[in-house]
Amino acid sequence: MKRTLITGGAGFIGSHLCDRFIQEGHEVVCMDNFITGSPDNIAHLIGHPRFHVIRHDVSNHVYIAGNLDYILHFASPASPIDYLKLPIQTLKVGALGTHNLLGLAKAKNARFLLASTSEVYGDPLIHPQQESYWGNVNPVGVRGVYDEAKRFAEAITMAYQRYHRVETRIVRIFNTYGPRMRANDGRVVSNFINQALRNLPITVYGDGLQTRSFQYCDDLVEGIWRLLHSDEAEPVNIGNPNEITILNFAEEVIAWIQSESKIVFEALPEDDPKIRQPDIRKAIEVLGWRPKISREEGVQKTIAFFREYLKA
Ligand code: NAD
Ligand code: UDP
Predict the structure, then answer these.
(1) Other CB atoms closer than 10 Å to residue 121's CB: what's the count?
(2) Are 172 and 235 in contact (CB under 8 A)?
């Protein structure tokens, strides 16, 4: 039986990974300090004989008894409002946390997979973003705490691969959404759906002409599963290239919910990237992966999740 450590396992994406790895027959150790995650996300797995939870901050030394085959490092505040509120924790988990987990991977001879992000491209000057692009990041801007932590995490991951021969994988994740996002995490998908369900104003930042490309969580989990089992040791983008302006997305959400909400315009946050679309040719070629779930289907599933949440 394979034994896998998932850090940030009680978060939005981490909890979906826990589900998948349990389904695949792994023993899963979920490590989380619950700083932005929730026990609710893994409540259904508690008591499963192959599932274990350890409450721990991975920026401190990580101890795990016994062998490990895989380490998936997903611990990190991820929503802009979270990492702006938790700048030092975000830098520490990306830097010290990644270092600790690479050390653990080396000691256990485990394969290590890093959750990186499209934010390593910053406010990109090329479009769509391909893996060979080095990015346009403001290191001293407010988002620098997240972007630079992830860029350092990628650099130290490559150093452990080259110097210590640790088997590593790096996934650059583009905007992902789905059930188990926090209603108040401030990200655009959760904000718009929750505002529309309550007929509250939909808050579009700036003129709404900035773009994003939204990926449903199940597509991401499949991409991560394939990358982990592939031989690809360089970063791979996993995202849905279907790009939309934030204003058009607000209109879609209003229409799909048949909401009475009106759009209001608010100030654009500092260093908010103007465009974002993954170039996924590498994932298609190397992993035979491409996203399958359309924005309408994925958003409808997410709306259903938040409807239940609002009832509870
Ligand atoms: P999330 O906030 O729901 O999950 C992060 C989890 O990590 C939470 O459970 C949190 O409690 C935990 N955590 C944070 N710091 C920790 C620490 N020091 N020690 C232990 N646990 C800690 O966010 P998410 O959207 O699920 O993101 C998960 C990962 O994916 C993050 O690394 C994020 O950078 C990356 N990512 C996400 C997206 C996205 O669109 N959701 C995009 C790019 C990258
Ligand atoms: N956004 C918005 N209204 C909101 C929340 C976000 O217009 O209520 C915009 C935000 O300025 C950004 C985009 O939506 O341009 C995506 O924001 P999110 O926080 O989801 O993630 P990002 O891609 O910026 O990390």
Answers:
(1) 26
(2) yes
Is the CB of 187 within 6 Å of ligand 2?
yes
- Output the DSSP codes for 24-41: TT-EEEEEE--SS--GGG
43 in the same domain as 164: yes
The residue whose C-alpha atom lies closest to atom 17 belonging to ligand 2 is 188
51 domain residue, yes or no:
yes
Closest CA to 78 of 278, 222, 217: 217
Asked whether the beta carbons of 38 and 7 are under 8 A apart, the reply is no
Please give the structure tokens belonging to residue 253: 């959400």
And the tokens for 225?
């599963």
Residue 285 domain-assigned?
Answer: no
pTM: 0.98
Find out whether the beta carbon of 75 lies less than 6 Å from any atom of ligand 1.
Answer: yes
What whole-number distance in Å separates Cα of residue 42 and Cα of residue 207? Answer: 38
Boundaries of domain holding 10: 3-176+216-238
- pLDDT, tens only, 127-176: 999 999 999 999 999 999 999 999 999 999 999 999 999 999 999 999 99
- Please enumerate in sequence order all residues whose Cβ is within 8 A of that of 52, keeping only pairs 6 or more positions apart, or say none: 27, 28, 29, 30
Nearest CA to ligand 2 atom 4: 188
Q: Which atom of ligand 1 is nearest to the CA of 59?
A: 18
